Every structure is written in structure tokens, then in C-alpha cells.
Amino acid sequence: MRKAVTEAIHHATHRSAFGRFLIDQPLMRNVLADLCLESEAATTLSMRLAHAFDRSRDDTREQKFTRIATAIAKYWITKRTPAVVAEALECLGGNGYVEESPLPRLYRDAPLNSLWEGAGNVQCLDVLRAMQKDPGTVEALQQEIASARGVNSIFDRFIESLISTKQMETNAEFGARWFVEKLALALQGAALIRSGNQTIADLFCSARLTEKLGLAFGTLQSTDGVALLLERSRPGRK
What we know:
Blueprint: H1 2-14, E1 16-17, E2 20-21, H2 26-55, H3 60-91, H4 94-97, H5 103-109, H6 113-116, H7 120-133, H8 135-146, H9 153-159, H10 165-170, H11 176-195, H12 198-208, H13 226-233
Antiparallel strand pairs: 1-2
């Protein structure tokens, strides 16, 4: 995901069309920023999980958190990766499709993540299994999500019913994908909020946790935080 976004940012920074670099054109900035946002959210959640693994040997709550959050993160990130790579490829146009570009290989490899890391249904069933067998995983998940409360009102509304004990314990297998998707978004939102970059966290919440979200990349409804996202993702940034 990060490699594909980096390639798209690099191309848009140097490719000129209609008298301006692509990265300076509003609609392209929307697409690129949306891709950056997805990559930031995936990376931040992955780092939170890595930290939990480091502490799990001496911290029971972190151990239970990794037990359930790993399956949640695997499900959502592997589902989002092919879409991110496809959109990044489109940013390069024909240059992104031909084999001289690294994008075709990334595009071919992207779907394999949900096979090597466990198919989507397997991951979602694993989440439900963890909840049913070990109530401690539910409590750890609730605490993790609730720890980010009080900073962003959109996030607070999104998690209000999601982290209720009844919702977590009685969710049916038929709706497992919907449920795990919402949990993944809540965990990403919480991780971004707790990471301390409020501008990006607010942008994520408004773009991913409301009913007005778009179904395609490039549907951000505000320019707030866009410049920061693009700058953070520029190749060679230190």
C-alpha cells in the first residue's frame, strides 16, 4: 500500500498536464490525499499492533488485544490494499500499467495478502470465535476503542453503539464482515487519534466514519489536512 502511494505521489509531483503539475490539480490532490489517508490509517494500526505484541508477554490486556485485533486488522487492510494499488496505478495512467513500472507487480501481488494472511471469512470468523471463547478479548477491544473518546465528536458517535457488550456478544455470523469492518475503522480512528496528529485523525474521522463517505477514492469533502498528508507521503521526506 505504502509503495503504491509513494509511486503515485512521485509521478504526480513531476508529471505536468494542462499547464500544472498533477499534484497541484484539485481533483488529483483529492485522490492522492485519500490514498495517503488509507495508507496512514493502515500503517498506524499496524504499529499499534506491533507495540501490543512487544508488551503482550508482560501485559495480559495487550495479549488479549493482539488476539482479536490481529484478525480485525488483517481482514480490513488486506481488503483495502488491492483497491489502493489499483487507484495508484490509475494515477500513473498507461505508464502505470506497463511492466517498466513497479505498479503491475504490486497489483498482481496485492490480492494474495488475503490468501497468505487468511481469507476474509476466516478472519471474521476468528474474531467472533475470540469473542465467544474469551470475554477478555471483548473487554480489551472496548478499552482500546474507548481510550480515544472525547477528542473527536464524529468518532465518539461512531463507536457509541459499536462497543456495547450486547452488540459485541450477540452479532450473528451472517453479518460478521460488516461488524469486523466497523471494528477495524474504529481501531484505525482510535490509533490515529492517540498518535497525536489531530489534523490527520480528524480528516480520517470525517472521511471514514460518517454516512456521507464516498465509495471511491478521491471523494474527500474537505481540503483540511490534505496538504499535510501529501507532504508526509512525498518520496525522500525525512
